[in-house]
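2 proteins. here.
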Amino acid sequence: MQLKRDNQHPINDPLQNADALLWAMIENLPGGAAFVVDSDLRYRLAEGEALAAAGFKPEDWVGKTIFEALPPGLAATYEVQYRKALAGEPFEVEHAAHNRFYISRGTPLRSANGEVYAVLVVSYDITDRKQAEAALRDKEAKLAQELADTKQLQHISSQLIQSENINALYEQILDAAIAILLSDMGSMQMFYPEQNELRLLAWKGFDPASAVFWEWVRVDSSSTCGVVFNTGERVIVADVETCDFMAGTEDLDACRLSGIRAMQSTPLISRDGRVMGMISNHWREPHQPSERELRLLDVLARQAADLIDRRQAEADAAADLEDMQRLHELGARLVAEDDIQTLYQEIVATAIALTRADAGSIQILDEATQDLVLLATQGSTPEMIQHFHRVNAGSNTSCGRALVTGDRTFVDFDVPQSEDPDGSMRLHLEAGYLSAQSTPLITRSGKAIGMVSTHWRKHHRPSDRELRFLDLLARQAADLIE
């Protein structure tokens, strides 16, 4: 094999004397290539496996300047290096080309008198090495992230034991969830079974209007939270704009307002299987979290569920103590108070407090007519007082229904007009009430003698704990009336 010659390069070109050496080197360059570039930055030689692998032939290079043979950016880089070598200084540079990585080493070629007449460049394919290095860096980064996430989870575990600032713990859990899933936003909610709603405990990154919209979320809503409650499983929406169950909903509008394109919601399950709340992450771009991230999130979700469960247990214990004291004080007043009307008002006030209601009433049963007669009320409008002064079994209200069944009854007032023939439901709605309960007052001999009712300005059902205390109050009220 011989170097190509043309009129610009005479036979006595010093390059001709290096042919044997150059070709021996080229033949021993598996996966590489060799180039000779003269002082005009023109390729005089281009051979090697790397050329063929990239789809080139020697004639695509030989006789052309680097500006003709290379892309502009790469030509600019190599111009600096080649001129450095032509000035007598070797160079080494790494670069990417044709989806591969190369390292190129340039050496000045000198004539017998020491003059640099060209540059010999030997390029090696280092793609495998670069990929291995990238994989190692990626593995090290993941290990570092896992270590940081594990330390954060350990820190939260210790705080669950030591910290008394419950709101700060909510914030820490939310920060950890955002860090673990590398999300842009996040939220944490607590489930209130008596209202069938989730309340927003902490949030990061939302538009304030979205946060207001999500302050209370019904679990039967068209949201990821609603789907989680229906399925009992985590829900991931990789793109809210293509999610069928969110299409055309106010929930989607709230997502758009905060710039949310993807989200996930994970239920917080207590150790006895109860849903305690929800933890959610949100991204500004379509996104699918990794399995590793979700595994770590599940550990965090367990901690969050334990925290909420503990808080609810503590709140219930404190409420038990408060309500027991309230009933004890009422019992003392029932003995000491001479004004019976004042006692009735005290019973109504206690019923409202025990059930965390907005209004209430107490009625006595007229044995002759079997009507319920209003004894005392709080929070009722004059129209309600007049309308419900006497209630019979035909009333569609909670007290009317309870009178028929003899059992505690719950009702919601926002029903179709066809279900409200006497307008009783409408009167409650006009007064701002959406739901109520009525508990019969039963004597120790088992005889129904009255009713105690409470009303709420939202859809609500008292907790089992609240109803137990209401039953104790009903016993006291029945003893007083009897």
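next one coming up
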Amino acid sequence: MAGTHYDAVVIGGGIHGAGVAQAVAAAGHSVLLLEKNEPAYGTSSRSSKLIHGGLRYLESGQFSLVRESLHERELLLRNAPDLVRLVPFYIPIYRQTKRRPWQIRIGLSLYSLLGGLGRNTRFRTLPRTEWPKLSGIRTDGLQAVFEYYDGQTDDAQLTHAVLRSATSQGADVIYPTRFLSAAKGDDCYQVDYQHHDQRQQCEATVLINAAGPWINLVRDGISPLPPQMEIELVQ
């Protein structure tokens, strides 16, 4: 692979890097993914394990984000049922809870509507007779309990599955390998990396930095230095 020209080189073998490599390969382009350790080494094996639409984002009016996330959840449930499954979640409402039952009911109704789940996996209000069945729940001052469904996965296995799909469509994946530098020329990047103690080089029309927590370390090795994007934090 040394000296090879790729349409895209992806740095980072987490779920984002794997997903980008899969999409590029599926579109018929050549792609190389470089991972320093092993796939899903970082955040992609230490996530919440949830495949969800972002219920809390409804409160800030980010309906398109929730709709898009729920659509992706539906695709994963349909295409990877061995890796992603629906599990129940419970929201207890106490006398001192800031959000009242009617507010939760409206939010879950909208969440179910956007999610397009079947009737048996939409939310419901749990009758009091079922409260004792919930292990560890405090019933003093409890006014209502809502049950809804969201997706759960093994994040590391999902990342590996996406990478297998990428390689099956022609992507090259190298790990463990260390990204050294990338210099932008007239029409492509010259990418240097170290694999098995050997320095190697390839060309890339497009360079994708998907290094997660190490994204700035990779950025520092790119010339000219790419601009930093502003990140908006949503609580």
